[in-house]
From TrEMBL:
<keyword id="KW-0436">Ligase</keyword>
<comment type="subunit">
    <text>Tetramer of two alpha and two beta subunits.</text>
</comment>
<comment type="similarity">
    <text>Belongs to the class-II aminoacyl-tRNA synthetase family. Phe-tRNA synthetase alpha subunit type 1 subfamily.</text>
</comment>
<dbReference type="Pfam" id="PF02912">
    <property type="entry name" value="Phe_tRNA-synt_N"/>
</dbReference>
<feature type="domain" description="Aminoacyl-transfer RNA synthetases class-II family profile">
    <location>
        <begin position="114"/>
        <end position="341"/>
    </location>
</feature>
<dbReference type="GO" id="GO:0005524">
    <property type="term" value="F:ATP binding"/>
</dbReference>
<dbReference type="Pfam" id="PF01409">
    <property type="entry name" value="tRNA-synt_2d"/>
</dbReference>
<keyword id="KW-0648">Protein biosynthesis</keyword>
<dbReference type="InterPro" id="IPR002319">
    <property type="entry name" value="Phenylalanyl-tRNA_Synthase"/>
</dbReference>
<feature type="coiled-coil region">
    <location>
        <begin position="61"/>
        <end position="91"/>
    </location>
</feature>
<dbReference type="InterPro" id="IPR045864">
    <property type="entry name" value="aa-tRNA-synth_II/BPL/LPL"/>
</dbReference>
<keyword id="KW-0547">Nucleotide-binding</keyword>
<keyword id="KW-0067">ATP-binding</keyword>
<dbReference type="InterPro" id="IPR006195">
    <property type="entry name" value="aa-tRNA-synth_II"/>
</dbReference>
<dbReference type="InterPro" id="IPR010978">
    <property type="entry name" value="tRNA-bd_arm"/>
</dbReference>
<dbReference type="InterPro" id="IPR022911">
    <property type="entry name" value="Phe_tRNA_ligase_alpha1_bac"/>
</dbReference>
<keyword id="KW-0175">Coiled coil</keyword>
Amino acid sequence: MLLEKIESLLKEVSTLTAANAEEIEQLRLKYLSKKGEINALMADFRNVAADQKKTVGMKINELKQSAIERINQLKEEAQNAESHSDDIDLTRSAYPIGLGTRHPISIVTNEIIDIFSRMGFTLYQGPEIDDDKHVFTMLNFAADHPARDMQDTFFIERSDPNDVTKNVLLRSHTSGDEAHYMETHEPPIRILCPGRVYRNEAISARAHCFFHQVEGLYVDKNVSFTDLKQVLLTFAREMFGPDTKIRLRPSYFPFTEPSAEMDISCNICGGEGCGFCKHTGWVEILGCGMVDPHDLAACGIDPDVYTGYAFGMGVERITNLKYRVNDLRLFSENDTRFLREFESAY
Ligand SMILES: [Zn+2]
């Protein structure tokens, strides 16, 4: 008797249908709740003869499982039907799409390019993976020159200490671009070379294994140090304000002679002296000088006919001066809280 009832419920359960979530809930209550049909069977189960208990017990379990499965199946079908519905509300407001911001290094690089292009400089970009010949040797860094130690970089291949074209490396400065350009172009040359450069340095707030430079080069007849100074003064005033003063201090670079480092009057205290400028009223922003005649000759330009000047600056340094970013690591950590600070800077 009981077995027949279970069999008929099994059939019933396997063909259950429901039109919506509410009907599904009704089915659940009917079969699976405390007062439902399956629990009611348990009362009859007590009266089953001992030798039948195992068979009947297993059958009741089978019924319960198939009721649970069928009801879950109905729920899933109802959900799928809902998500495939083409009842789309076109009037609902859109999800906001966050607009990115320009990176501070790009903002400052573009500003530098902008200023120099107004003075007739055109853009040239060389390779980041270069050879020893263009990065060092053509620029007067002899193989045993101590200045090489100041620019320790990452070598990809160092197969032959005597053949500099065989040593492949990540460039340590963008001056190599100038060598590439001079090698393949006749003067007059007036180029600006922005880009990423690499150094073998431990990463800290003040040093990183990569940073950005912009270098400039002008080679023509009768180019003088006076021209260089005027171009740099114009740059400093455009970049940091019309009251900015510049100061040139003698320095040394292998590829220029004479060489100088340029300071600008501290743009925080206006030259009065403050913590930022170490109370000197001046901050260093770039290196420059007249291109060494040896470099011109090494690149196939006649140093008896042409002269030239070159300058180079670190973009991170200029960005720090403009926006007070004093930890280099912030530039490459991709922290959007930092990057969003520059939303209104361009
Ligand atoms: Zn100052």
